[in-house]
Every structure is written in structure tokens, then in C-alpha cells.
């Protein structure tokens, strides 16, 4: 019966652990036959996420299935951690609902809505709404997980293509695995991967954040600098966001101090991101990841 599930061309690329997913679906939807589920891949740089749908005359169900396999482990992703964080944040309207989990899959409720285009995302009104959400998150009780940045960078270092490591790069890597971190301003829960593709606007105008796989407690300045860099915010746009965050929502008392602290974290964000791209390159051999990381390699003087 399981062989009849509709995989829509994904048979050769996913679901070596499909039986585990089907068992999870049966556990939470016992009245729906396995052959009535339709599975299709969702785009995303981290991979491992699938749309799971069922359309019956009396019932429609849409879910997100997030794999917990070797590809995710390589990127320092842990679905057990993700599920627990979402459970802790379930009272907040900007988080997806956890349906269930086993050792290989995390099932989430589907979030219906539209991603903003880049122009909409950068509008002051949209940034105001995001500043409000980030404030709520940064003021929430601490999560059960701290971001282990040094461990994450070290983990990535074991998984990149060692042939690409020049003497300068090796020295740089030793620095980021041993140097002291910038002074922490405030430890708080953070999403750590906010960008337009991880945001949807529902039919009621509510913004929701998707893909919580990198969420953890970390310094607010590191979290904000990550957000600024991932989205290419200009100095003016950064200042506007920090004014909303500090002066409007009162998330931190000193905007100038916070802005300075964000800048002190900038090299750490860049190196973490560079190493993430390098792991993706080594795992997939997709040239896109080298294209994405080119400016970062230039920043650290690793080209030529």
C-alpha cells in the first residue's frame, strides 16, 4: 500500500525513510489511507522539507514534513530541538504548529499565505512589523537551547573540502574557533534565519516566521547582525529597524550601543555564513553555493 503514495517524481531523491513518515502520518491521521497522501518537495537552501497533502471529499489536510537525516546533521540542524522550541513558543501567533515527530521526521501544520517580494520586504511598514515580532521573540522566556557558535563553526570545519583551505584560511579558522566573542548585551531567543522566503503573510495580514531549524538563545546583537547581513540592509535601513526595536518597542535601552555591538559581531556572522556555504558546496557540488559565498571569500581575502 505504501508504494502507491503519490511522490510526484521524487522517488529517486527522497524518502529512503518513507516508511517512517507514513507511520507518523498514520499515528496522527489514522482515518486517512497512506495512498491518499501526496508528497512534493519544497524549495530551500537547507533542503529536507516536503509538502504533504490529502484531498478527500470530506477532508483536506496540508502539512510540512521536515526530514531529520545526514544532510540536516551536516548543517547543524536537529529536528528534536526545532520541535521543542516551537512547542515552547506555541503561544505566539508567528510560529507554525507542531503536529508530531519521530526520529526521522518533524510534522508541522501548513502555513497558508504569501511570501513578500524583496521590495515589499524592505518597505518601512513591513520592517516595522518585523521589528515588533523580533521584539516579542527577544522578550520571550529563554529557550532550552543556546546557540553554540564555536561548536557550529568547528563542526562545519570538519565537513568542508579540505583541499580548499589555504594557509590563510587555516589561520582564519583557528582564530574563529579560539578567539573571545564580543561582549554580550542580552541573551534572548532568536530565529536566526529571517528573510523573505521564511516569512509569509496570511489572509488576515498576520506575519508568520517559517523554518525555525537554527533557532536558539543568543546575544540580541548577534541575532540582529545576522538578520541585517542575510537581507543586505543598508545603514539607513539598519538604523530604521533599530529605532523601531529600541525606541518604539523598547526592546533595548541604548540604540547606539546596540548598533555598535552589532558591528562587532559582523565578522563572526560572515564567517559562520561562509562555512555554511562551504559545507553545502562540499555536500552538493552545486556551483550556486560558491557564487553565494564569493563576496564573503573576498571579505576575508581568500580569493587569489
Q: What kind of sheet is the major sheet?
A: 5 strands, antiparallel
Tally of extended strands? 9
Share of residues in helices: 40-55%
The tally of structural domains comes to 2
- If you compute it from the alpha carbons, what radius of gyration comes out, rounded to the nearest whole angstrom? 20 Å
SS class: alpha+beta
Give the low-pLDDT segments: 1-5, 7-13
CATH topology name of the largest domain, in short, is Aminoglycoside 3'-phosphotransferase, Chain: A, domain 2
Annotated CATH architecture of the largest domain: Alpha-Beta Complex
- Relative strand content: 5-15%
Order of helices and strands: HEEEHHEEHHHHEEEEHHHH
Question: Could you tell me how far the N terminus lies from the C terminus, measured between alpha carbons in angstroms?
Answer: 56 Å
Fourth CATH level, the homologous superfamily of the largest domain = Aminoglycoside phosphotransferase (APH), C-terminal lobe
CATH class of the largest domain: Alpha Beta
Helical segment count: 11
Q: In what order do the strands lie side by side in the largest sheet?
A: 1-2-3-5-4
Shape: globular
Mean pLDDT: 92
Can you offer a commentary on this structure?
This protein is of the alpha+beta class and 304 residues long. The chain has two domains: 2-109, Phosphorylase Kinase, domain 1 (2-Layer Sandwich), CATH 3.30.200; 118-299, Alpha-Beta Complex (Aminoglycoside 3'-phosphotransferase, Chain: A, domain 2). Helices cover 44% and strands 14% of the residues. It contains eleven helices and nine strands. The strands form three sheets. Strands 1-2-3-5-4 form a five-stranded antiparallel beta sheet, with helices on both faces. A two-stranded antiparallel ribbon has the order 6-9. Strands 7-8 form a two-stranded antiparallel ribbon. Strand 4 (98-101) and strand 5 (105-109) form a beta hairpin. The longest helix has 30 residues, at 255-284. It is globular. Residues 1-5 and 7-13 have low confidence and may be disordered.
Amino acid at each position: 500500500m505504501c508504494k502507491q503514495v503519490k511522490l510526484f517524481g521524487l522517488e529517486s531523491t527522497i524518502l529512503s525513510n518513507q516508511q517512517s513518515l507514513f507511520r507518523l502520518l498514520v499515528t496522527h491521521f489514522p482515518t486517512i489511507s497512506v495512498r491518499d497522501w501526496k508528497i512534493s518537495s519544497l524549495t530551500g537552501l537547507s533542503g529536507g522539507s516536503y509538502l504533504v497533502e490529502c484531498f478527500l471529499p470530506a477532508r483536506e489536510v496540508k502539512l510540512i514534513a521536515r526530514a531529520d537525516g545526514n544532510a540536516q546533521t551536516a548543517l547543524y540542524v536537529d529536528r528534536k530541538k526545532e520541535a521543542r522550541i516551537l512547542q515552547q513558543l506555541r503561544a505566539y501567533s508567528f510560529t507554525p504548529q507542531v503536529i508530531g515527530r519521530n526520529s526521522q521526521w518533524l510534522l508541522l501544520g501548513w502555513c497558508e499565505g504569501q511570501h513578500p517580494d524583496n521590495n515589499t520586504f524592505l518597505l518601512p511598514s513591513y520592517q516595522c512589523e518585523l521589528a515588533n515580532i523580533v521584539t516579542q521573540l527577544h522578550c520571550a522566556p529563554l529557550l532550552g537551547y543556546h546557540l553554540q557558535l564555536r561548536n557550529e563553526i568547528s563542526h562545519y570545519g570538519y565537513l568542508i573540502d579540505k583541499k580548499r583551505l589555504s594557509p590563510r584560511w587555516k589561520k582564519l579558522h583557528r582564530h574563529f574557533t579560539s578567539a573571545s566573542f564580543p561582549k554580550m548585551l542580552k541573551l534572548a531567543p532568536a530565529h536566526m534565519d529571517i528573510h523573505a522566503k521564511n516569512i509569509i503573510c496570511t489572509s488576515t495580514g498576520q506575519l508568520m516566521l517559517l523554518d525555525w531549524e537554527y533557532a536558539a538563545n543568543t546575544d540580541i546583537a548577534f541575532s540582529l547582525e545576522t538578520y541585517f547581513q542575510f537581507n543586505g540592509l543598508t545603514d539607513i535601513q539598519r538604523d530604521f529597524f533599530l529605532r523601531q526595536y529600541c525606541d518604539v518597542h523598547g526592546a533595548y535601552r541604548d540604540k547606539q550601543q546596540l548598533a555598535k555591538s552589532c558591528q562587532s559581531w559582523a565578522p563572526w556572522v560572515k564567517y559562520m555564513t561562509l562555512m555554511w556555504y562551504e559545507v553545502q558546496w562540499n555536500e552538493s557540488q552545486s556551483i550556486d553555493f560558491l557564487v553565494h559565498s564569493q563576496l564573503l571569500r573576498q571579505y576575508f581575502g581568500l580569493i587569489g
